[in-house]
Design brief:
The protein is of the alpha/beta class. Helix content is about 35%, strand content about 20%. The chain has 23 helices and 22 strands. The strands form five sheets. A six-stranded mixed beta sheet has the order 6-7-8-3-9-10, with helices on both faces. Strands 18-19-20-15-21-22 form a six-stranded mixed beta sheet, sandwiched between helices. Strand 13 and strand 14 (about 390-400) form a beta hairpin.
Amino acid sequence: MRKSEQRARAEGRASVVPRATVETAIAVEHLSLGVVDGGLILDDVGFRLRPGRILALVGESGSGKTTAALACMNHLRSGLELRGGTVELQEGASRFHRKAVDLLTLSEKQMRQLRGGTIAYVPQDPALSLNGSLRVGEQIAEVLRAHEFGRNARERDARVAEVLSEVGLPSDSAYRRRFPHQLSGGQQQRIGIAMAFACRPAVIILDEPTTGLDVATQDLVLKTIYQLTTKHDVAGLYITHDLAVVAQVANDVAVMLHGRIVEDGPAEQMLRHPQHAYTRSLLSAVPDMQGARDMGGGPAVSPLASVRAPWDDGRSAATHFTADNTTPCADTSDPGSAPSEQDAAAGEAPAPTARAVTRERGAGGVVVPGQEHEPVVRLRDLRMAYGQAVILDGINLELEAGQTTMLLGESGSGKTTLSRSVAGLNDDYTGDVLLDGEVLAPSTRRRSNEQRRRIQYVFQSPFSSLNPRRSIGDSLQVPLQLGGGMNRGQRRAAVADALDAVRLGRSYIDRRPGELSGGERQRAAVARALVNAPSVLVCDEITSALDVSVQASVIELLRELQHERGLAMLFVTHNIALARHISHKLAVLERGKLVDYGPTDTVLRNPRHAYTRSLLEHVPTLEEVG
């Protein structure tokens, strides 16, 4: 290493060429990656990362977003091989490389010098990205030491304090001595961002850093990312499936489908005037606070049938997307093209649109079987505390047949504790949970088989809620085995009916979770809850890990199931934009207190509490672009 480069590294100075004068930091040209002895994962991908601007790479799960982003760090997942193309770090973009260099030609040792220093990465899950045994200040200092930033420990310590202040966290020694588990999810994510910006990188790659965060924390994290990127002329690559977030943070957008970029351009143009049918379908699936936008068509009747794209009004038959992953069966950029004779002959006609299948709906867009509703579940003065920390503070709530109550609040507000109390998974509360007027035992172990059958819980993660070693059929049979009263043939028939009900089909009965997409796994989890024919469904953040089109499909599925079965649902979420698309009533929790409760439209139009108004102000919308 040259002496000038050593001095630049030690002092953390900018490169000889000021970064603001560099037009491009990284140029990706004709990049193609494939599975060893298999097909392509990325096909002729190209984009440019520019200083002071954020490029949002948008697409559904499996579209190749993360693979393309990791290629910018010369990191190829196991089993992948380079088929062609370059990822060039441009001249002047790096402090330590004066000449342009193709990152894909560098050795692992050379790349380790760049990763974290010149090219930084912020992973999706803040809890998993931090070392639980190290204090947060030490973790940031470790990055500085690894890249020889600063001339001594004193300068590195000053940089730790500086970068903590930059991400909006306390910089005092007491805070730096905290462990990750002592921080909230939003604070953990900002520590991850501080680590990424610590060495003043030229490029930062952000892999869905706000997934799972509540709206207020998400808003703060997005503002932090945008401010640091523009202030320090950092070229940003933001991977996401949330187009409302794109409107808030991105300057440019590239849309990926099946490993190809199908459309790109400035954010305002892409979000207001999309040209490609797939981009329009993604925009149609984004929930909006007014409920004016229909979140896509109803679910298909079988996994092989196609469903009309959300932008299709029934007069045209442009690209048809498969039921779960919304991937095109036949891609065309002309939304006015007619279905081919071959499609019609093959029986590939699209399913009815949401307008055709929803019929008459009540508040929240859900079909209501009748006007009068008796409470199926009633919570009466529910309280819970851990020492001096109050988790639930006198909650009174009702769940009615055929209606959905949405439970809103920030992380730590008590949403999951309340929902688990309803299901009997948390027995430390005082007060009563009543089912049809009968007080339930706090613990599910002390409830009767009939009571357990009638209240079913759908967990948040579709990837961890199913046993990977069991087939889908075996996992779905477990509730029936515990209830007793059925032989093996009867249980298998009930499981097949449940899979049909969630529009997967009985062909999935012998598949394993690893063979299913995220949306399919979540449908299977819903089927497991439905197999016992419950009266109440508790859904705990079940759409937080899903991309927008799959989320729309799951929401439409729940609406149809509620109409067909008259289910009472408690829908726990931090995504307020879903409110008008699924809920009849809103219940807002703040630090264990129910601060707002009433019909969805009433709460959204006239929130009584300042906390509710604050949450509504932080909801990202597509209208923010421009």
